[in-house]
């Protein structure tokens, strides 16, 4: 592998397992009960490989675990340059322990003394933006209001008159706990299509709020395009890999950085940034700094930013669930399924509820090695 291919992003997240006691025959011990399985995935920032490298039960990520993983990867010449997680309480606690916030978005690699940049998972952030928009709405720095009322009026227009926006329906606006976890619904609601429909039809009596909300949604859609690129070239500059149209991409990121820093959820303190805002700000700054480092150290020309999201873990968890009848397998069953996935030639069919785009062509390193060695 080249130096580019050995440049690593670490993603970590938890998945629910069935809580029960089990007997591990091989270890001759009783295991459990546990509720959550922590999984760490190492992934090439520029190559086409990934590999789960750590699992732990009812174990939150800590600096000591993270540093141990980074050091072990360094021993075999893999260089960690970024980490990604969601904005859950345990992960925010890790950020604090690493002295990371929206202003200082990196910690020092214990082996190389170079920066490792922290990212919040962009699809998770998109869901949070959607949830806060529906639950509270936002007030911008200039006093403009962003809320769900124009979206409700747009739905009524779509439902009763003409199909001005095929993507939006009542299910996008009445977000129950299960739908809050669905990034596809969030991406459809906060899409360029919906934003443009608001700007074109200006539904409801408050034209200004319709225009403000439409512009905000269009801006969010472009931000998500920048943070979720899969290929070097896209249909518009914001859909290209980051760095291909750097000036235009940074212009929009700088605009969104100011928006996220200055907007406030309606009814909340005007002096406090919410957790999702801090994650948004942190990720923008991390992306710009990481690209500068990669361009300087490795002559990288662009970054496909989905590599800085948790889609690899979402797909992995879907593969685990699809390997048997129980959506939440027991710890020992989960371990057995992981062995099948990472050592087998066919990782399995993804479940229908995955929150990711099925465009992932990465191979598990262990499976690739087994196939190359022709071990059956």
TrEMBL record:
Which residue numbers delimit the Transposable element P transposase-like RNase H domain? 4-98
What stretches pass through the bilayer?
none
Locate the Transposable element P transposase-like RNase H C-terminal domain: which residues?
A: 306-330
**Residues of the signal sequence?**
none
Domain Transposable element P transposase-like GTP-binding insertion spans what residues?
124-234
Q: What is this protein called?
A: Transposable element P transposase-like Protein
Species of the source? Tribolium castaneum (Red flour beetle)
Q: Which InterPro entries match?
A: TNP-like_GBD, TNP-like_RNaseH_C, TNP-like_RNaseH_N
Superkingdom: Eukaryota
